[in-house]
Design a protein that fits this description.
With 210 residues, this protein is mainly alpha-helical. The chain contains 7 helices and no strands. Helices cover 72% and strands 0% of the residues. The longest helix has 29 residues. Keywords: Membrane, Transmembrane, Transmembrane helix.
Amino acid sequence: MPGPGPHTAYALGPETSAAGRRHRGLAMSYVHHPFYYVLLLGLPLSVFYSWLSGVLLKRGLLDSVSGVSLSRSQCLLLVAAGSLTHFFLDHLFEENGHSNTYTWILSTGSWKGRVPNNVEAVLVVGLLCTSLITGFIYINRVNPGKSVTTRANHSMGLILLVMSLYCLWCVSQIYWRNPPQPAVGEEADLGVIIFLAIYFFLPILCVFYP
């Protein structure tokens, strides 16, 4: 029985190549993702980096104040920080500015001509800003007897509370109100705040938490 000739190999080649491209594209879509990357590769990479830091430390190629190599949990947090920082740039400067994330950020603003003045928005923003400033004064001036760390934690909690209330206001105006209206002028504040919280401040916390 004759074996497959050149024409058979040519017929099978494109199909095999197309299937390989589909599999590579599917794998890339899962790995090239800010959260799937950590879920799929975070554990093996954290194990490898933890082992590598121990080897480099013993050979004197890595400096450590404590003299202890990185733990797996520390490496996992660093992998997560690296992934989020990478996509901080990808979402803004790839796909010709038409990535899903960047499109959503812009959708939380209003770009249909001049936005009319909204008295409700002025009152809400004024109340939140007043609460923030008054809270800072109370925490750091009126009641300064507590430690710097405690005051810093209380200040951070106040910032998160005011930010959450402001995001709730934006959501209520953009998604819950019928018909929807701009939350504050034309600015895409909701998208910007959530984007920076995830892709800028969260990686910083991951780096400094270990």
